Amino acid sequence: MKLKEIINQPEGRRLEFKAQMPSKAALAKTIIAFANDAGGELYLGIQDKPREVTGVDEEQLIELERQKQNISFDSEPVYKKEFEQLKTQSIQEFFADKTGEKLTKQVLSKLELIKAEQGKTLPVNALVLISDDDLAHQLFPYAKIECARFKGTIPGNFIDQKSITGNVALQAEQAYQFVKRHTSQGTTDYTGVYRNDRWEYPIIAIREVIRNAVIHRDYSMTGKDIKIAIFDDKIEITSPGKLMPSVDYSDMESGQSDIRNKVLAPVFKRLGIIEQWGNGLKLMNEELQAYPEIELSWKEPGIAFRVIFANKAFQQQHELQQELQHELQHELQHELQHELQHESLYSKALKIINIKTSSTKELSEALGQKSISGQLKKVLAKLLKDGLVEWTEPDAAKSSKQQYKITQKGSLFLNFIESEK
Question: Would you say 128 and 78 are in contact if contact means Cβ atoms under 8 Å apart?
């Protein structure tokens, strides 16, 4: 039957159309349904409504053919240069430093980084990728990592950005350092007299995702690079190529391992970039147990795999700030309007407390008063009543150690005044 006739038939028990390569779960579901019935045919690259041939991306077809033959793109020989002409000094030095072994021709052959063909010794794609030769940029201009720290929660204004190019064996560490530079580290609590410090995000888990992105990305895809996007509320790491078929992020404890780049992966293991096969997801899962406020999720946008570390605490904080902002504008409308027209003792005292938790005496001195005035006492009582400040000793109102500290509502009050000026 001609294709034109086939695509005009309605979908049914034995016929199904997909515009794009379905997810593993959807594909397995369709195949099982056919197998449990009388068989069937699945056509890829055919849109359902309207019914027309859209085709499948050529890179996907080539990758499927490689998987069928159990070969990887990084193992294919490069014919533009012979091995002896390739500049490999940086990887030679890096390999010697990490392994204590020289990257001789014999070692390169054992690692399958070179191939003998028709009397010539040719580098494979993997060796070109970890070389410092111009050929690497010519063949793989998108074998890089684009890092960005955005202002806010959506792509837009950059606070910082960095393009990490060159030897792919060195890229993961550079990207990891970029993330650490834009991730805060603070104190969570104390165990006895010892302070407990931890990163804002599960940094070890993020390191593993970056490593996986570099090791398992599809280097055959043109026009696609790894992207690391840091927002106020999340970190996203996107890698070209879908997740390998046998890896399930929902089962992180099982020590799964599947390799897209069959030459690069063993080299990276020798270099210490991979610590142990199948250990990455387990490390991620273990660290995430200590971060209940961080939600890990993943998806496959187009022909890519994206991992998201979302900070639920930020979202809750943002919602709380909106509620407080609404309360401020409703309950303290008169105070806000008054402060916008003329700065009073009310906001002057609040600004001092915002800079430093202070006692009544310290506030009086900071305001230039010779002694504590009755007006200051009234202002502090109102700030307490309005919820803009609070006591450091709430159960001991007359304590000699009593001080005033600003509340979140107080900070929002000052921010609102500043933004409206």
Answer: yes
pTM reported for the whole predicted model: 0.66
End-to-end CA gap in the chain: 74
367-382: pLDDT as tens digits: 999 899 999 999 999 9
DSSP per position, 260-313: S-TTHHHHHHHTTSS-STT-HHHHHHHHHTT-TTEEEEEE--SSEEEEEEEEHH
Nearest to 213 by CA among 235, 175, 180, 239: 239
The runs of H, that is alpha helices, within 100-166 are: 105-110, 125-129, 134-139
Across 221-241, average pLDDT: 94
Task: Classify residue 201 by its DSSP letter.
Answer: S
**Bridge partners (DSSP) listed for residue 406:** 389
Residue 358 pairs in a beta bridge with 404
- Total number of residues shown for the chain: 421
Question: Are the beta carbons of 79 and 122 closer than 8 angstroms?
Answer: yes
Nearest to 377 by CA among 352, 396, 349, 353: 349
Report the mean per-residue pLDDT for the chain.
85
Distance between CA atoms of residues 35 and 13, nearest Å: 11
Asked whether the predicted pLDDT for residue 120 surpasses 90, the reply is: yes
Gap between the Cα atoms of 232 and 240, Å rounded: 24
Domains and CATH numbers, the chain: 3-56 (no CATH), 74-139 (no CATH), 145-312 (3.30.565.60), 332-420 (1.10.10.10)
**Looking at the predicted structure, is the pLDDT value of residue 219 above 90?**
yes
